[in-house]
Design goal:
The complex is a heterodimer of chains A (about 425) and B (about 300).
Chain A lengths: L1 H15 L14 E6 L9 H14 L3 E6 L6 H10 L6 E5 L3 H6 L12 H5 L3 H5 L2 E2 L2 E2 L2 E6 L1 E6 H6 L11 H11 L11 E4 L6 H13 L16 H15 L9 H9 L3 E7 L2 H8 L3 H4 E4 L11 E2 L1 E7 L4 H14 L2 H11 L3 E2 L8 H4 L14 E2 L7 H15 L6 H16 L1
Parallel strand pairs in A: 1-2, 1-3, 8-9, 11-14
Antiparallel strand pairs in A: 3-12, 4-5, 6-12, 6-13, 7-9, 7-10
Helix pairs in contact in A: 9-10, 9-17, 11-12, 17-18
Chain B lengths: L1 H39 L2 E2 L2 H6 L4 E2 L3 H8 L2 H31 L6 H8 L1 H4 L2 H11 L6 H9 L16 H25 L4 H9 L4 H29 L3 H6 L11 H11 L3 H25 L7
Antiparallel strand pairs in B: 1-2
The chains are: A alpha/beta (about 425), B mainly alpha (about 300).
Amino acid sequence: MKKILVLLLSLLTAMSLFAGGSAEKAESEQVTIKVANYAVLEQGYIPFWEGVKEGFEAKYPNYKIEWVTAPYGEIVNQVINMAGGGDRVDVIFSESSWVPGFEDAGLAAPVDEVLSADFIKDIYPSVLADFEINGKAYGVPLYVTPFVLYYNKDLFAQAGLDPNTPPTTYDEMLKYAEKLSQLKDKNGNKVYAFGQTTASVAISGTALTAMVFNFGGEVLDANGNLSCDNEGFRQAFETLALLDEMGYNPQNAKLKDLRNLFALGQLAMYYDQSWGFNGVSSINPDAKNFTASAAPLKGGNGSGESLMSAHCFVLVDNGEAHNKAVDAFVQYVISADTLSDYLANVTPAYPATYSMEGMEGVANNPILKGAANSVANVKHQVTVPALNDLNLELTTLAQAVTVSNKSVDQAIAEFKKAAALKLQ
Amino acid sequence: MRKLNSKNRGDRIYSFCLLIPAFLLALFFILIPIVDSVIKSFQDFKVKNIISGKPGVWNNFANYIKLFASNALGNAVVNTFVFVVFVIVFQFVLGMALALVLNSNIKGARFFRSIMMTPWVVPTVISALIWMWLFQPQYGLVKYLVSLVTFGKVTEFAMLNQPDSALTGVGIAALWKQIPLMTLLLLAGLQNVPDDIQEAAMIDGASKTRRFFSITMPYMASVIKIAVSMSIIENFKQFPLFWTMTGGGPDGATTNLAILSYREAFVSMNLGSGAAVTTIWMLLMIITVGIYNKCFRTYDMT
């Protein structure tokens, strides 16, 4: 008897590992939409998103929002793993560079299949074009930004430079950098003159693409093929190598490292998406007193063009009832009422719709003012499914010419081989 | 006699029945996933296949051909082996030294043993974050200490930013985390070395070194073999320290097979290619552990 009991117990223990529960589906008119959003976990953004949930649910009592959260670096996998298990979210708060991956995974729905036509017409066509794959847009931008140049007016003044005349070309920047790099902060720490992210994360690759555009170069041609045999591409990486050699650029830094250094007065100028200022002011609330922005620098024969980035919503088609709720949610968020205070005080960025054009908080934002014209000077980059891979290969190239001290020729040759395999 | 046979048969059936749950678990959670992963490594199998439920398609070894055509695989294999050898050598030497100290009945040994275990209980990701901050290039403690020790001659010290030193940086974090367990296992082994044999050798005039290599080490052989095997496996599959501290950079200097597999599967969203890396990784691990077991065959000393 004892033996049989032991046997049954061990079988039950084993079987319990295979057991699963099934949630009972409550049929009601209430629709709960699942919104995957990493920003809900980030200190600087929590009040805004809590306000969105509260305001949306008050306006639409039949709709509820359920956040699906994961840290920034894990949210894509979280969404995909859930979808693999049959649990698809309805909306993903996404970087624009993630959109091709979601489309390739079969998760993103064309926005015109979910959103009303009038709302789509309100989005600037040139901005919507950045989300198009085979003629269909797969992302809805909340707001946009090129990579702008943030600089520290106090450090400029300390170096004997005019705080109201930031550099406009890479040559000018190098002259400024010579003076700025002589400075020390109040604790005697080195002040870096210029920051360009090169760490092994996809967003750094996006920043590097923008730098290539500054020099009039390209990374992909209009058909999505690798296109790096151009002068602008080479000059961008030669400049990175020079910046490293002079000790002007913090090596292998992530954007968050640059924000940290800038907030602490240890970095005089750096490239960032406009909303990166939120990270700076989270570290040092006084940063608004010394921060100013400028248009991206012109290099070589380039005109200082940059790459447009956006925070956007990727929509998932989960049936008519959910699509209606998603339509209401997207229109609620991407509206002057919801975004004006956010763009003015939390996340400096430029609106993506006609109806928000000239919004008070953006037009008169002292942080954005210097770079205001740069929104019109952007270059469209075709989207390919392997965009994240390509971005990571660009960071490897940047590291090769900086920390690895490889020649630009050798590094570009290695990059071409690796990137071509990824784009196959 | 017949009664005894019937009892034996009953015991055997009962033992077999007790093994069934373990067998089922191994089958469903280990064997089937491994076979499934190997099959997928020969297929064009991407995230969209999971989401749409469509099966993968045989792709004529394309995943393997692509991997061998890139420099990434060779680089990852070299990094993996260098890391494993570095960590195991230092872990064993330092772990043994600590175990000998703790076994020598010094004052406060019990307290030190408890304190020493702290890194082992800290989650790996937290350990990685701690070491990342220690190595931080602008205001990290290690940079400050290096500057202090060199009397201000070395002011720029960024271990994780240099391709030559990044792997060592991750290795140091791994050693900090893993030495306590190695020490504990070796200490358990040391305490099982019979005192009478040691005393006999001492009376015969054997030196401390001779006693260590001729008595202590042979008696500890089985413990050492298990501890080192565990360490080989642990470091062969090390992912969180690398991903958190360097993400595989700079310039691929810390891309090991775990990072490469993750990047192929979850950054490129190409699960077939990720499975191909995993298959190569698994084969290399089996070969390594097999060679190790063959080289370090142990004999029962008792």
